[in-house]
Amino acid sequence: QVQLVESGGGLVQTGGSLRLSCAAPTSIFSISAMGWYRQAPGKQRELVAVISRGGSRRYAEFVKGRFTISRDNAKNTVFLQMNSLQPEDAAVYYCNAKGTENYWGQGTQVTVSS
Questions:
Q1: Average confidence (pLDDT) per 10 residues, the chain, 114 residues
Q2: Cβ–Cβ < 8 Å for 80, 36
């Protein structure tokens, strides 16, 4: 079973920052677009940001200017730098690898206190 290993979630105050990381096996990372999704209680999972193998980025409108997705191809890791966090950003954040197949991480909780 493919493992995407996430880290970096936690509790932060409104306006604070967190950096999420997701490591993937080389065989998956090298052929995949990598993304971050989130799911808040009672809501559907939604796209936050995605980065292609070549580095092209796409963001959800609600995070533009606050979140930055990046990938380190040497370390098979994708990052999500989250700044100016708001209570509405609180959710479980999931890493996604989309290549020939679709893989998901286990999720990491982000909590934003007001």
A1: 90 98 93 96 97 96 95 96 97 96 96 95
A2: yes
